[in-house]
Amino acid sequence: MKTNKSCKFKSEATQKEHFNRLAELYEAHYDSPENGIYRDRCINKHLFEGINLKGAKVLEAMCGSGQTTGFLLANGAEVTGLDISPEFIERFKKRWPQAECVTGSILNTGFPDNYFDVVVIVGGLHHVHPAVGEAVDEVYRVLKPGGYFSFMEPHAGSIPDVIRKAWYFFDKYFAENEASVDLEMLKKENKERFEFIAEFYFGNVAFLFVWNSMILRIPLWLKKIYSPALIGIEALLNPLQGKRLSCLSVSRWRKKGLAAIEG
User: Fold this and answer.
1) Do 107 and 131 meet the contact criterion of CB atoms below 8 Å apart?
2) Is the separation of the CB atoms in 210 and 35 below 8 Å?
């Protein structure tokens, strides 16, 4: 279902102001070495499994200061970062001078049709409600036929989502339009345009106390002490959880059309 322009503009303005304000604190926690380990062990392998990144044109949409960029560059990708926050794009430029970056909206990127081999979004779609559908429309437009859309989001319908809804309402670290993503509805709306290659559910103690240390107001020095143990425990628990008990989902979709090159 399409949203009207005023709703989209309001949600974008809300997120732009929100992340400009939180940029320094956000980067300190989500770009910490501990979060980097969590990304490598729990997120990146599922986002990009089977995708040949060498020489691929990758759009890191809603990129922040580029927490996924290092992985992409190390695997030979040509990276373009996109974020609506000028503060984060300035940080991206300084951190990754070898990559391109643009200040702009995931709802209207300005890139040509069929331009990228891969579009990746890590925890960004749940920030664009009520315009998640429009964001996926834009991803579809800029992807080449056979190109991959890889994304990680909190998903609707889980037990953790019940707690998340209440937390979103009361916590100032969340903007008013944030909500989990209804993956089943999103797949239903896009079944004619994408193949759904893989779906992975995960996230428990390390997601809460390592990944989300900013939200829980945990000091960085304390996070360093317990992170290795919790990341190890999460790895053991993830296969036992299933969709209902997991905090996060990773999806890999492929735009229908010519076959993509695979790793």
Assistant:
1) yes
2) yes
Q: According to the model, what pLDDT value does residue 229 have?
A: 97
The encoded tokens of residue 237 equal 């628990």
Query: What does the block give as tokens for 239?
Result: 């296969």
Q: Is 172 helix (H, G, I), strand (E, B) or coil?
A: coil
Q: How many residues does the chain have?
A: 263
Amino acid at 24: E
Q: What is the CATH number of the domain that holds 92?
A: 3.40.50.150
CA distances from 147 to 44, 95, 116, 161, 194 (A): 17, 27, 7, 30, 10
Three-class DSSP category at 81: strand
**Strands 57-61 and 116-122, sheet pairing:** parallel
Q: Indicate the number of domains in the chain.
A: 1
DSSP class of 178: -
Tens digits of per-residue pLDDT, 157-192?
A: 999 998 888 777 777 777 777 889 999 999 999 999
Q: How far apart are CA 22 and CA 91, in angstroms?
A: 13
Q: Is residue 260 part of a domain?
A: no
